[in-house]
Each structure stands twice: as C-alpha cells, then as structure tokens.
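Work through this protein:
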Amino acid sequence: MRKCLATVVAALLSMAGVVLGVAAPAHAAAGGLKITSVEPSCECGGEPLTGSGAYLLWGFGATAVNFTDPTPAKGHTYKLVVSPRVKAPKKGFQMYLSGKKGDFVLFQSQAKLKLGTKYTFKVQEYAGKSLVDTSAPVSWTPKTTKAPASMAIDSQTMPNGVEAFVAGTTYHLTWPEGAWEKGAKVTMQALVFDSTGAAVKAVVGKNQFNHGATVSPKGVSFTPTAGMAGKWIGISVYGQKKGKLPWGWSTEWIPVIADASSTAQWYLGRDKTGSGSIEGPAELVTGAVLTASTNVPETSADLGITATYQWYRETYDDDWNPIDTDIDGATGDSYTVTADDAGAALFVRVTYTSSDPTYASSTESVWAGSVEEPDGR
C-alpha cells in the first residue's frame, strides 16, 4: 500500500471593486441601504503540482458584495466604492438586482484585491447625479481557510508503479498533516470516468455528481464496486469556511481493477505520459537510431497486452501552434532519424491494448527531443 500525497500550494485570490450604475424599481425614502455580506466565490480549475501526482484547485476568482435597499426607487442607480481604491473596467463591474436585494460581483482579472489586505466597501444610491443614500462601511480582508498540509489516499501500487483501486476494497481519504479550520465545510467529488472521458457515476453521496458531497473534516471512506472495473475514479476535495477562500486538491484519474489478480489492468492506466523512455544518442542527427522502451514487462504477451507504435514529427506554424505529423511507415519500436526530420521534435505514441475487452486501451507519448539542423541551413 502506498499513500498518494499531495502538497498544498496556496492559491491567492485576486478580486476587484468599482463603481457601477444600475436602474432599480420604486422608492419612498432614504436611510435603509445596507451591505449584508462580503463573500468570495469559487471558479475552480486545476494546475499540476510537479512531482506530486496531484492537482491543486485554484481560481477563486470573484467575490460578491451583497446589499439590501428596503425602499428601492424607480430610476435610481447604485455605486460601489472601494478603499483602498482599485482599478475598474470602463463599463464597471457586474451588478445584479432583484427586488430589494442586489450584489456587485468583483472579478479577479480586473481590480486584483490582494490576500491579507483590508478593504472597505460602501454602496451609494443616486437619483440622477444627486446622492440619496450611503450604506455604513463594511470592511473585509481576503483570507484562506486554514487547511491540512497534505491529502492522502491509500490506493494500491501495481508492479509498474501505477496507482489503482481494487473493486470491493474500502479506501480512505485522509489528511495526515494538520487539520481543517474549525467551522470549515469540506466537500468531496469522486466521479467514475469511462474510456471516452465522460463522467458516468458518482462514488460518494447522493447529490455529489454535480455539486459534491459534504464529508467529515477528519476524512472519508469509499468502496469502488465491481461495475467500476475498467474505468477510472477522479477525486476532488476542497474545504471552505464562510467568508474565507477555499483550499483544495484534485487527484489524477486512478484506474479501478476487478481484483488484485487482474494483472493486465495494472499496465493500462488511462494516461501514463512520460512513464516510457527512448534510448538513443544525446545529439539527434540524421542516421541516429531511437528505440522506445515501454512500461510493460517482457511477459506482457502472457498478460494479454500488446503495444503498437507510431512515430511523429512536431513542427510549428507561423503563429507557433504545434503541428504533429505521423511519419509514414514508422510503426515499430525503433526509428532511424532522416534528413526530413531536421529542425523537428520527434516523439512516439505507444498504444497498449488488452485481450480482455473489459479494459480500455491506453496511450502514452514519449519524447525523443529535437533533431539538429545541418550546418549551413
């Protein structure tokens, strides 16, 4: 058993505030304008953590300044004032208004509020150019939810180094270093993906397929079923305390095998880019011989696994967009560099298939490097 450990990297929130005018419905008298809350929102994406085998959730790119006006007036407009002042787009930040409630949405890419800086917000109401009402100021400092330093899942390590889940076995997601801040809500999304990359089933919680399931800050257990064999599970977790920024992680897709004796599936992870290698000279010139080494053992044929090869040249167009061209006839594990390869990068794409139709094929790309241009070219 080996724990897949992911080290958390802080994702700083950048948000913005501005002045924005929006028409509102009917009003009697001033004096009730009030900011009710300032809350960050999550626009989540991911970026690889080098060497960790995991992904950090990031992109907490917006915050909302929520307010109420108990007596809104037709034709009046609202403005948001932020101190210290932040840069605003020409048309102002988005504002939403529904009856007596409204909110300004401040986006990361615009005013770029800084983590740890105290900001003060005020909402103003105008009748034309005349100031009618101003809310009491509300201060807010962007801070992250205190989170554990790492996440671990006790998946099993197969002979080729691929992490896997065995159907029917119970696994545990824990935080071995540190704890979540008191009051933080921890959400887990564990989805089953098929060979096309489509999410087909949730692993934890009735409602978590779309929104994630609330789990214990101390960890959670889950058991892949037999019907998940031949597919993959991807897990994302984040924790957030109200009014603070969430922290979280996302694992790579982890294959599910029918049982510990399903040897063939050990070598068929969804995407093992970089796990193979290419042997050849350090300098790639015409006549150099390149040989691909795969991540399956010499006994792969006995396991019902076959590997096929296709070598490629990668060049770039005038806008520096990569163009991958398959090399005609280059379908073996070895390739001899030709004059046509000069100035291009070479790689081989290896596709593994199993005689057991339960298991989808797997492809990896292994890079050889760039071929040198001849002198004088």
